[in-house]
Amino acid sequence: MALKLNAINFQSPKCSSFGLPPVVSLRSPKLSVAATLRSGLRDVETVKKTFSPAREVHVQVTHSMAPQKIEIFKAMEDWAENNILVHLKNVEKCPQPQDFLPDPASDEFHDQIKELRERAKEIPDDYFVVLVGDMITEEALPTYQTMLNTWDGVRDETGASPTSWAIWTRAWTAEENRHGDPLNKYLYLSGRVDMKQIEKTIQYLIGSGMDPRTENSPYLGFIYTSFQERATFISHGNTARLARDHGDFKLAQICGTIASDEKRHETAYTKIVEKLFEIDPDGTVLAFGDMMKKKISMPDHFMYDGRDDNLFDHFSSVAQRLGVYTAKDYADILEHLVGRWKVEKLTGLSAEGQKAQDYVCGLPPRIRRLEERAQIRAKQAPRLPFSWIYDREVQL
Fold it and tell me: Where is Fe cation 2 bound in this sequence (predicted)?
């Protein structure tokens, strides 16, 4: 959200029109089969164009991690069990979406929905744009679990592997799965948004995947997730604050609970990278520098609703203007991680490692200068319609 990445130029799928079959077919069965195959191939091409982004996808090195580095993660199995799995929450103690929503078994169900809709009437459209964007990001969870399972040395090899890394990935996914649900149901019940357009956006996003450029490397991957979990903690925390400001304390509770989960997950991922700095400082600082040079792309940067080719840019502009997630936050997160991992104090690095160290430590001030320019541009931003809110216009 902080860095304005261009959205992807998808082509909308075209639906075939079907007429009544002729009373008598003059074509041979072979010709009919051939025509059907040609039609099927055209449909396949349409799907490929729809879900194969034309921009912002980079040619990646794959499986870039040296084989001996994989052994580091195998050796960390016991450490992960004792230090990472502790950041998972007992299911029975986890708040569930239904804790925050009208109870369908209650006699007051319809009154509760009416009350929710009355509260939602007081919330401005630009807030709903950001809330929808955050919800869509959470609903693209299948992509994120897939991404974690591309990393060498820590993936869930069987789908039910008993390794600590695999248990973490599945249980993290299960906890994250609770985030999109209450936001989705709240938005549905509010009556303020076009759910069909939102549902299409979710389908497009999951079908398009993401391009974090982590090269199947958990070094790069855990740096990426450390950054991302803190970013989502900040974003959901700010949507909670704004919901309170607009008088919807139930919605604030939903967003605040999600932010609390993201904070726990951030703690786990930053501990992993901290351990990597302890075991392999040179390799880890090189990965940190590499990830920051590539820039941390938001997981929803392929966002598309079937209409707006620059939907992610437009959504992130609104988030920037409202202060939900900004370029300043991006710089603050980087500065936080540099301090958390004591990057400035690393010694004994290679020449390349020292260059990476200097780069990441000097990056936050440069990003803050970009933030100042972004604020100037934001004052001149136009108003644009968003399909999520029935094409009502919002200032970017």
Answer: 176, 229, 262, 265
